[in-house]
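Hi L.,

You mentioned the student needs an example of a multi-chain input paired with its predicted structure. This one should do, with 427 residues in total across all chains.
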Amino acid sequence: MTSVIEVAHLTKRFGDLAAIDDVSFRVEENAITGLLGRNGAGKTTLMQLLTGQQFATSGTIDVFGANPVENADVLQNVCFIKESQKYPDEFRPKHVFRSAPWFFPHWDAEFAEQLVEDFRVPANRPIKKLSRGQVSSVGVIVGLASRAPLTFFDEPYLGLDAVARQIFYDRLLQDYAEHPRTILLSTHLIDEVANLLEHVLVIDDGRVVIDEEADVLRGSATTIAGTRAAVAAFSEGREVLHAETIGGLSSVTLEALSPSDRADAAAAGLELAPVSLQQLIIRKTTLTAPATESEMEHSA
Amino acid sequence: MDESRPIFVQIAEQIENDIVAGTLAEETQVPSTNEFAAFYRINPATAGKGVNLLVDSGVLYKKRGIGMFVASGSRARLLEKRRKTFAEEFIAPLLGEAASLDISSDELLELIQTHAQRMGPQKVGEK
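Structure written out for the whole complex:
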């Protein structure tokens, strides 16, 4: 597999704050990667660094084999859709779509037109007068129709309703299947996009905490529930990601269990339940220290 | 799709189910990876992994330049495989739940017979 992005020991400081803290990872070509993490984790900063809109404090960034900063050869293959894209005051959506081909050599005007219909964007109304969701739709259309070999979507759907989000996912998958390209999607709506992702990159506090294939992550944790004594006995010596207690019952989320572990748990009368990608990421990004007995009580 | 297992495994099972049910007949073409991806709203690479799982196990085979087809004899082999795991996957949990509800084996047998009659003989007795 070829990497489109290679980052090594990347650090970005704003004064005393390390927004990105010694991060290394690669992004494979023609995969959809989810860039997930909490607010302020560093997702946007990271995407700005990867698109040459911020300068690294230290470390190296390779995008299509070169540093993206001020590099037209790299940047003409990159499309970055931001959460709150600003447009010139007098612009209407049609102006955005008409000027897009100047920046994106792979722009497909017909596809853009179809998307305008799908998302019901009023192409002739001044952007200032559009709703939040409609402005987001304009960005999403640019991101899809630009067909850039490397496309970043940074929380693209502020204000988009559920129908529009579903259209976005469907068109993204469909067009990606016909025109494979590398996509980095940053979002809070993890459950909604979980099945679209091939790879997952989770950052927390400026560091990469998960860099794994989505299929491997799924099933990398299990919740077991049962009587306190049985749960405590089973989880002894295992890494506990999360624990809850209600009366005499408790439930804990554990790292991957082997089939024989699962059989043992079932034999001990414990209930096993899957952990969704979203839950798993919440567990991993809120965990600061292994849960102790007192914390278990506390979180009940 | 349930969350506990890799999606590609579930895609493979879904295709197997269709073969067992006869919806996908032997020697017919199965939908393309992209069609599976669009239908289940999953990443095409994931759908591809599921299809490849079945190619590796000989359930599907590739006709170059055309697509994936169901191999002859697949249905019989899948039926045999599923019969082997039937007791463990279905009878064991049934007995477990029956035990916790204090339903005796005799009562359970009777329940099964009553239900089988209600569903109609052709469904259960079908070979």
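You could point out the following to them. Chain B touches chain A at residues 1-8, 33-34, 37-38, 40-46, 49 (CB under 8 Å). Residues 86 and 92 of chain B are 9 Å apart (CA to CA).

Best wishes,
N.
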